[in-house]
Description:
Chain A is an all-alpha fold.
Amino acid sequence: MEKENYSRLNKKTLRTFCISFSIGMLLIAIFSILRQMFKGDSQINFIPAIITGILSCYHQIAAWVVPDNPSLRKPHFAIFAMLFFYITNAIWKIVTLIIGTVVFGIIFYLIFTITSVVLKLNKKDHIKNKITGWQKVPEKINLPEQCRKLF
Amino acid sequence: MEKTYILGISAFYHDSAAAVLCNGEIIAAAQEERFTRKKADASFPIEAIKFCLNYAGIKISDINEIVFYDKPILKFDRILASYLHTAPLGIRSFLKAIPLWLREKLWIEDQIKKDLMYEKDILFTQHHQSHAASAFYPSPFNEAAILTVDGAGEWATTAVSLGNGNKLDILETLEFPHSLGLLYSAFTYYCGFKVNSGEYKLMGLAPYGKPIYKEKILNNLVQVNTDGSISLNLTFFNFISGLKMINKKFCKLFGMPPRRPEEPLTQFYMDIAASIQEITNEIIVAMAKHAKELTGCKNLCFAGGVALNCSANNVLAKSGIFENIFIQPAAGDAGGALGAALYVHYALHGNIRNPQNNNDVIPQLPGLGPDFSPEEIEKLLKHYGLNYKKMSDDDLYKYCAEKLNDQQIIGWFQGRMEFGPRALGYRSIIADPRSADMQKKMNLKIKFRESFRPFAPAVMEDFADEYFDIPSSSKYLTPYMLTTTQILRKHLKNVESFDSTENKISLLGIDRSTINAVTHLNGSARVQVVREKDNPKFYKLLREFYRQTKMPMVVNTSFNVRGEPIVCTPQDALYCFFASNIDILVLECFILEKRTQSVKMDLTEWKKKIIQD
């Protein structure tokens, strides 16, 4: 009975570890992409610190909750998790740069392209050479109050 | 009376700048590049803003309104539409541009508020409105047609406006991608010069060539209509979707690849330069005719980057379409900061404008930057342990005139720094224009730049007509070095060489006139007419030089070396002095002679900032 409990706990621990790791990574990826897009760099500070902390403590906590689990008592597992995370964190810095600028860009690009096709944006007429020659400027454009508007 | 301050800002494309008005009076204006020492710096002009506030003696909280010189959302709209049209070809350019837009350019309002800790609303004028305002409001005209031509603003690339009193209305526009500025920049790129800063080199190269590709360009690349509107054949250009201005089809048309920046300049590229310059001249004249028809005005204000094309300005002035032409010296994007602030003061707030509608008055514009007291300069000279002399004004003029006559080259640093790309006697390098080899010497040993580049004369107003054929409509252009003029035939020599079919670079050594150092190969010169009331110190120097030599002019070129912005501070002037072969440095009332200096300045950091253009 006791053995079964240990076994179940191990499977559960492993599964939770994998899920939390995956979610953590996903969070980092999203966070980094957003940071890359809005701040212009891929520094990862806040999120990885928390997740690394959680992961490195996870097995210590588990070991504390279930003190007789032999695999959880081994401290090298937590160190390994932490090292693994720092390495993956560094890899993610590079990956998210690529994701941020390429994958996200392509998705963005496709969304705009599709939107343009669906909405048939008439601004394309400029570039399709449908709008050439002198264009009369509507009166409202010259209203000085227009400069209070962003566009 | 309570003072109202307006701060104008231009940024994020090229030549960012700031300008501050107090009750409509221009207090200060400067380009960011002069402070950061990065040529054509496009970053948020925080240093220029700090200078403007300091000079006005105010804090940011004293500013009543901040106005940005274009509407970023409309510009973003144009950029997205361009990518949509060219999808999927523009993916590389898209991936480069969009993150920059998303993290910076779309949040200009937030950035201004955050960086300046400013809490009031930010105003946004349209790009061409800012250009038009920068030319019209400082002009001496009550009513004028305004032509603004540049690469691209939001959607407009060219605009014809009408200025009347304090009102300014844009009447008609040409819209992206049909742009004279972009067409000229495409050829700038093709000839191996940097887009957005090398256009003046293309202009300087044009007289070395013959316009033999003009028909080819008109038949294939650009359709010029009788009303001055143009239509580009986009199959030859890559600027909509790509990272380059032109494509392979463009190169195939001329049968030559784009010139690489440091490759020798062959006659082919000179002929290309001559061809596009002639087309530009014709388009500008056609556009001006259209502006005249549309407005019926006798005065023209001209602005936008294309308005800095001196050769085209000369053709425009000689065309006689307008009686008077005015160009504000910072006609490019930097001037947009000034224009945006002026627009808010006059058009938005309806303040009364009193244009100096008197042909004898030329607006005092260029000296809007920082100045430095003798105490500040002396402290710096002592800090470096430099050998210097202090002189009274009269002794200074005599000394400098003698040294110029001895063929020495002088770095001339006086008063407030110029606003705009031209050095007009405040931050200038000056020399004797009579010398046959002065052009070569100054290009190669002082400025470290291409040998074909011409130099400009600064002439006393009293003698301008004795040397140059200046059309009456140019009288508001010549004080700011904004037009070329023909040197009178009586001063020219070896005129037959002007039409020579030889490679004209080889003709550089030929004696062309009595003012050889400032005579371009076609007998033209980009003259600056100096009046005593505009710049008294510079005028008195010219007068003294004339007294000693009977020559009423000097060579006047910007105080910098290639790749460096014009010097701003005495420290910058010292770096440039020690890095080049300038013989004498004049810092206000202080004289430094190179040969008497035992101290060597450490130029390592300075050199790192120089990026060859």
